[in-house]
Amino acid sequence: MRIHRGSPIGTSTRARSRKKSRRLWVAGAVALSLPLGLTAAGNSNASPSAAGDGVGTTQYEDEFLELYEKIKDPASGYFSAEGIPYHAVETLIIEAPDHGHETTSEAYSYLIWLEAQYGQVTGDWGPFNDSWALMEEYMIPGAADQPTNSFYDPSSPATYAPESNDPSNYPAPLDPNVPVGEDPLANELSSTYGTDDIYGMHWLQDVDNVYGYGNTPGDPCGGNAEGPSFINTFQRGPQESVWETVPHPSCDDFSFGGENGYLDLFTDDAAYATQWRYTNAPDADARAVQAAYWANQWASEQGNQAQVAETVEKAAQLGDYLRYSMYDKYFKQVGDCVGPTECPAGSGKNSSQYLMSWYYAWGGALDTSAGWSWRIGSSFNHFGYQNPLAAYALSSDEALVPDSPSAGEDWGASLDRMVEFYRWLQSAEGGIAGGANNSWDGAYGEPPADTSTFYGMWYDEDPVYHDPPSNEWFGMQAWSMQRLAEYYYESGDELAGEVLDKWVAWVLPEVTVGNGADFAIPATLSWSGQPDTWDPANPGDNAGLHVEVVGHSQDVGVAGSLANALAFYAAASGDTAAQETAAGLLDALLANSDDIGVATEETREDFSRFGDEVHIPSDFSGTMPNGDVIEPGATFESLRSFYQDDPDWPQVEEYLNGGEAPTFTYHRFWAQADIAIALATYTNLFGEEA
C-alpha cells in the first residue's frame, strides 16, 4: 500500500518536531540491512563512527557552524563581489562548467539549502531569504532578459530540429514540416501570474566575465560590460563532452562569433536573427523547492513561519514553471513515439512524461518589433534528476502547492511516476540504472526491437551524455537516493522503502571507513543488461540488469550526500548500520578539513584533453571576445587562451608536454554545502546524544 498523500504533511508516524523523540524511535528499532556489529566494510571491528574520530552529534552541529563560517568567510573565496557562489574557489577546473569562477543553478540551489539548514540550527532566517533573492536577481532571467515572450504561440511551441550522436553532424537543420504538439501550460501560467515570462533559473553563468560576454541583470546584451552573464556550452548531442564545446552568450546579438554570432554552429536556418535563449536544469530548481519545503517545516516548528512565507511562495511559483521539464521536447505524444512525422503531436497533457527530464528551454527574438519566441521540453529522463521530495511538497504541502489550477494534480502524478521510475531502473544488485527517453537518438528514431519500456518510453542506459557515460558517476546515485530517503522519511511510502532497502544493502559493503581521514566510497560504475518492461501491477525482478562498482574515491561532496542519504534512511527505517556508516563518513570528512573547508587531493588525467579538437563547420569563421579564433582545427585550449595566465597552468602545461598528471585540491561550493548540510542533518535526525 502506498501512503504518500493520505494525510497532511506534518502528520507522519515519525516524530518530527522533537529531536529526542526521533532519536529514541531510531534507537529502539532493528537494523535491517546488516547484522549489528558489522561495519560497512563487512568486518567485525568497531563501527564506522568509532573507527573515525568519534565526533558525537552535539559536535556535528558545532562542526556545521564552523564549516558554515569557513564557507561564508569572504577570505575563503567561495563568493563573488555580488555574493554569487562560484562553482569552485579554484579557477582551473573543467567539469560541466568549464571554469571554476563560472557558476550554475546547482550552486545557487545548494546555497539556498545551506541557508535553510542554517535557519534550522540558529533560528535566523534572514540568510535563507537573502539567498533566494540573490538567485532571483542574478539567475532567473528578468523581463528585460526575455523580452519577446508575449509573441509565444502555445499551439506552435518550436520548430523541430533533429539531434545527432556526433557533434560533426551539426548544425542541425530546422524542419517546419515536422508536426509539434501544443503547450498545455502557457495559458494557465500566464493567467495565474499575469505575465508571459518564465520564472526558472538558467543553468550556467560566467560570474567574473572571463569570456567577455558580460552584462548586468535586465540588460541581456551588455557587450563587454562588467558583470555576471548568462552563457551556454553544450548544444550538440550526447557525444559532445565539455572538451568539445564552444562557449557562447545566451543573448546573441552577433557582437561576437561569426557573421551570425554563434547560431550557425548549432542550427542550420535560411536566415538568422539576433536572439536570447535560456536552458533550465530541473534538478537545481527542484533542489531549491526541496530546501524551501524544509525551511517552511523548520521555521514553523520554531514559530517563525511568517519569516519565510514570502520565499516559500516564490518556491511554489518556481515549481509551477518546473512542470515544463515533464514534457517531451516538441510536445509530442508520450509512448511508442517513432518517426518525426509519424509520431503524433501531443494535445492536452498526453505529451507529459511526468518525470523531470534533463532540461526545459525557452528563447526568442531580441527585436521586439519583429517578435517571436519558442519553448521546448526534453525527451530524455535520467533517474538522477528526479526529486520525489519536491514532488511531494508541490503536490500536498499547502504552502507549496502552486497556484495554477492543475499544478498540484500534475505533481501528484509525477510523484507516483518518479517512485515507479526508481523501481523500474533498480538493478539486481540494487543500484539505479540510467533512465528512459521518448525520442530515440533525439530524432524520434526506431529503437532496437528488444528495448524494454516504461510507459512506452525506451530504456536508455546513459541518457543525455555519453562522454563519459551519464550512468557512470556514483554521485548521481547519492544525490537522487538522498531525495528519495527524505521523501521516505516524510511519507512512509512503502515502494520508496523497498527501493531504499535494496539500494542501501548494495552500497554499505562498498563503503570503507578507516582511521582518521581514511575512507572510500564508490566512484565509477559499470552496467550491463536492461530492466524488464514495466508493469506497475506486476513489477519484474530485473534479473538481467546488473551494476558493478569498478572504482572508488574520496570525493568529499558525494560522501557528504551519501552520509545524508544514509542518515535519513536510518531515521526512517531504524537501520543501525546505515546510521553508523553515516556517522563514520562524517568523522572521516571532518578529518579532511583544511583552512577553508573539506578537501582531498585529486589527480586530473583528463586534463590531457586540453588539446582536443572542437568541431567547427568548414564554412564558419569567427572570434571569441578576446580574439581567440573560432575556425576548423580549433581546440578546447585555443578557444580559452586565458587559461595560459592561470596560476595553476604551469603544471597542466608540463603534463601536456609529457610530464606527470597534475594534482589539485579543489573546494567545490556544492561539495562544501553538501557536507555542512549532512552534519546538521545528522544532529537534527538523531538528537544531541550519540
From TrEMBL:
Composition-biased stretches (Polar residues): 146-158
A Gene Ontology molecular function term of the record: cellulase activity
Pfam families cross-referenced by the UniProt entry: Glyco_hydro_48
UniProt keywords, alphabetically: Carbohydrate metabolism, Cellulose degradation, Glycosidase, Hydrolase, Polysaccharide degradation, Signal
Keyword S-adenosyl-L-methionine applies: no
Biological processes annotated in GO: cellulose catabolic process
Superkingdom, natural source: Bacteria
Segments of this protein annotated with the region Disordered: 1-20, 146-183
Annotated transmembrane regions: none
Listed InterPro entries: 6-hairpin_glycosidase_sf, 6hp_glycosidase-like_sf, Endo-1-4-beta-glucanase_dom2, Endoglucanase_F_dom3, Glyco_hydro_48F
Stated name of the protein: Glycosyl hydrolase family 48
Signal peptide positions on this chain: 1-40
Catalytic-site annotation from UniProt: E106, D283
